[in-house]
Amino acid sequence: MASSRSVPNLAFRRLRAQRSPGEFAAAVRRAAREIGEQVACDARYIGRVEAGEIRCPNYAYERVFLHMFPGLTLRDLGFLPREQVRGRAARTPAPVPATASVSVSAVDPATAPAGGPATALAMTPATNHTGDTSEESDVLRRAFMTTGPAAVAAVSLGLGGSAEAAVPGPREAGSRRVGEAEVSAVEEAVRRIRLLDDRHGADGLYRQAAQPLRAAYALLDAGTPTRRSTAERLHTGAGELSISVGWLAHDSGRFDDARSHYAEALATARVANDPAVEAHAFANTSFLARDSGRYREAVRAAQAGLRAAAQLGSSRLLALLSLREAAGWAKVGDRAGCERTLTRAVAYFDRGPSDADPEWMSFFGEPELEAQKALCHAALGDARRAARHVYRATALQDPHFARNLALYRAELATNLARAGAPDEAAAAGHQALDLLDQVQSSRIHTRLAATVRALLPQRRLPEVATFLERHAATDPRA
């Protein structure tokens, strides 16, 4: 709910001119890609800015807006100084320890103040730089905090207040209702988890990210928000958060946990009659089934997702679900079914992006399309064709998506090894290892282990031997 102090941002509204909020949000996303940023901007975010609910954007949005409107300042765009919004003086960023890990801390609900579940997820990508990167870490810090059945303090989101002030007593907690602040905090938690996963992988995030998920479902149990639109957003946010946490479990090799989280998201979607969350849950369930060796289930889940997505108007979502189905057909050895479904996926993809595309699909561009084609051809035993597709994926991938780039390079190495190009495979393997200082993903280590197995017969070659030695020294499972 907008604060009583909110003042409409007329300067920002004038910059939008004749474009709709959806069209302007698309322009913001394009501008972000131009400078290597990732923002999940949609029409709702633009509406919140223009209504004055967002008095100062986070650092990622600030960079994008200043790129879009060169020569203007945040004040020219209608925003307030950050220190005024935060209620504190500007300070010099503290040095950040030089480490490659992702630091995630959480308040244990058992030790939280009275009033129900209390969770603070501090998702800070570790870095050896100061300045702008450290400032962005401050935005990520306390991305999701909920205390009591219906009280959220999300200081870094510009919702006001402090963590301590937001902790209600037992009586107060029972009398408060879920509102805009709580729902916005759930939505922002989803965005922060996705951002950090793209940059750093899942291994350092999963266990702590489960805590805001429990808090989100506690909000659902606390009671229905007064406004129907707020209730729908809360169900959608809880479902998407469950999928995001499930993906962290999936990417870090915890398949049983992932399956449970995806099932929870699917149940939430069906209770709320939300086909978008349902399609997303089925897309991830299909992916997990393929990785778990349940290939027929992968096909059926993808087909169920296609039925849910049919009414949403997103060709890119239909393309991704078709790729999930194609991968399942490839794994059961049905070449005709795989090729037929791949053709359908490409046809959907070629229709281009639209405002109906879910914001979680920001990763899905031509690189991912090529990588998914490669997985299908590899499963069908055509390593050379797979290597060509995944090479294109590595060449096209934005370095911002460090986890995906490392994964593509690991898959390229495996396919080159199987295609009889050991030196090239070793070189691609080195490139994947280069990124493991930034990325923590069990799935990537599994792919590299497959590369090692494929290269062992050629271990006497100098390039291969060097790669194998380096891999052995860096493999956390060795």
UniProtKB/TrEMBL annotation:
SUPFAM superfamilies for the chain:
TPR-like
Q: Which InterPro entries match?
A: TPR-like_helical_dom_sf
Sequence segments annotated as region (Disordered): 110-134
**Biased composition range(s): Low complexity:** 110-127
- Lineage: superkingdom: Bacteria
**The protein's name in its UniProt record:** Transcriptional regulator
Q: What species was this sequence derived from?
A: Streptomyces hebeiensis
- What does UniProt list as this organism's lineage? Bacteria, Bacillati, Actinomycetota, Actinomycetes, Kitasatosporales
